[in-house]
Amino acid sequence: MPTKRENFAQSLRAQWLGVRMREHRERHKLTLQDVAPIVEHEFSTIARYERALWPFPLPVLTMLLDVYGIVDERERDLLTEAARHSWRINRWDADTGPSEVDVPFIDYSWVQARAREIWVYGATYVPALLQTRPYLETLTRAKEGDALPGFKFVNLVRARMDLQKVLTTRPPVQVHALIEEAALRRPVGGVDMLRDQLEHLVKLGQRANVQVQILPPTVGEHPALDGPFTVLHMRGEYPPVVYLEHLGGRMLLEKERAARYVSAYERLQEIAGSPSASTSRIEALAADIDDAVQVS
Known about the structure:
Endonuclease, Chain A; 7 strands; 14% strand; DUF5753; Transcriptional regulator; Cro/C1-type_HTH
């Protein structure tokens, strides 16, 4: 198992573990200087473990679990398994059955909450962060089908709407959206719902922390034709992460795989319309919605 410090990837699993261990330490009102002599390590070394700069050694983790009085078996198992798998990158969570691997469920909301800047590419519909509630509900029902129990539908919609709170956090998270014009012409929920969605996009684009660019239909081949994705630029020293959704579940990509998406997005920014021109285009589509969706 590659755990050498010089090869460590600052993986999401390691970040999750570090955050969790710091929370346990602070819950007991202990400083790094308090715990360092107990585990016979420099406090700066423990700080590096908590910041996921170095892998958490299992013997040190076990001692700290005892120091923090963590007796819950499930919590101890989660943290221990996280340490064992901290070198792993990338994650796939299936909608049915067990996840691809290991332990703690690192959900998208946890990752998004750690981002300083978010890039979203919408290929076939408006990205979830920028959707109105009716638009989101309509898409969710279309994806999940009528067999989805009512309470699960409500919870799913609520969870997706909660992610939009990132638009109004303090300090603000910078959000940049690239959307194919074809996605803005798709009459999700009908022309009235689409018009409301387009007007909502224009209002969001007026926020200082939100920027929207449209890819015109005249653009031919480009590096993101495989579908929508989200790039999350993490706070601090952590590398970007990419989030993908598909019918079978969700994926989080790191390191080289994430870097490919960053490069693709930067290329799209170069060929998309400017933010001001994109706003004008969205306004024009909303003003003549019947023509926009080619309704006769």
